[in-house]
Write a structure and sequence with these properties.
The chain is mainly beta and 306 residues long. The protein has one domain: 6 Propeller (Neuraminidase). 7% of the residues lie in helices and 37% in strands. The chain is globular, with a radius of gyration of 18 Å. Residues 1-18 have low confidence and may be disordered.
Length: 306
């Protein structure tokens, strides 16, 4: 995804207090009980989303209805999406540890990485069996590198040079760890999605959606500098959170931000509602474009330009 990253410096200074009401908005997809789990865009700017039921769909930006892509990933929970070389890449199943892609010109998905090798890599790098799946990945299309992450306990980000793929397999000895979380406190800064974009110097920036903290971490892979931008105060108020859950209706609850898209002027953050309705407090607050239903929502945050 070769979107240009403008104004890397100005986002260093932004907290929610810098967001005016017209700097963000919610959109609500026109489909109830759709468990939004991933989002990306293709080379033509079309927005693609996926669900944990295994569907991959285009968003009609005129009415936010979903248009199914002909391919159905039967019975597979899709964890992450990206677009590379004209194909939709997706990670599937919490413990399946597999990345595949759909060639939209073909009639069947193509498997670029075998689950056997991927299992071996994760088992050797991440011996902890708890939550040992791939939750997110991002493709650096300019440098042909695949970044993939383990969600938490312990969270970690790894990368692999896609030019080294041979017969849809990779060598675990060539997988490297990105030194961003190593040695840091394992507080719940969990990873739910990632994307790559580029700054005006052509340096790749890895955007990491940290669900529990309700923030986006921006990591310059070249300089190894990192900054964060928080959206917590948009989706949480004093007493409640975006989706109503009678068992836990506060910002101490686990976050539901599952999907991240980096556009030229905006971040799009997709929320998995878990079958819950939008909280009535937020309907009153932002009632012009969201309703008290189980439809998933996407938060669009303005990206400031110099």
């Amino acid at each position: 995804m070769q979107n240009v990253f403008y104004s890397f410096t100005i986002f260093f200074l932004i907290t929610f207090s810098g967001f005016a009401q017209n700097d963000f908005e919610f959109i609500q997809l026109n489909k109830e009980k759709y468990e939004l789990s991933a989002i990306c865009s293709d080379n033509h700017g079309n927005i693609i989303v996926a669900s944990d039921e295994g569907s991959i769909d285009y968003i009609d930006l005129k009415n936010y209805k979903l248009k199914p892509i002909d391919h159905k990933i039967i019975g597979k929970d899709i964890e992450a999406l990206d677009f590379f070389n004209g194909k939709i890449w997706y990670a599937i199943e919490e413990n399946y540890r597999k990345i595949e892609f759909l060639d939209l010109k073909s009639t069947s998905p193509y498997q670029p990485i075998s689950s056997t090798n991927l299992n071996g890599i994760i088992s050797s790098l991440i011996p902890n069996k708890d939550n040992s799946s791939i939750e997110a990945f991002a493709i650096d299309s300019i440098n042909s590198k695949l970044y993939f992450s383990k969600e938490y306990n312990k969270r970690a980000i790894y990368f692999y040079n896609l030019n080294n793929l041979r017969d849809q397999n990779w060598n675990s000895d060539e997988v490297r760890i990105l030194d961003i979380y190593r040695g840091k406190d394992e507080s719940p800064l969990d990873i739910s999605d990632m994307k790559i974009s580029y700054n005006d110097k052509g340096q790749p920036i890895l955007y990491i959606l940290e669900r529990y903290e309700r923030q986006i971490r921006m990591y310059n892979i070249t300089t190894q500098k990192t900054k964060t931008v928080s959206f917590k105060k948009i989706v949480c108020d004093t007493d409640s959170s975006l989706f109503y859950n009678k068992q836990c209706d506060s910002c101490t609850c686990y976050g539901k931000a599952e999907a991240l898209l980096v556009k030229k002027d905006e971040f799009w953050i997709g929320f998995d509602n878990g079958g819950y309705k939008i909280n009535e407090n937020f309907v009153k607050k932002y009632g012009y474009n969201i309703s008290h239903k189980t439809n998933p929502v996407i938060l669009k945050i303005k990206r400031y330009q110099p």
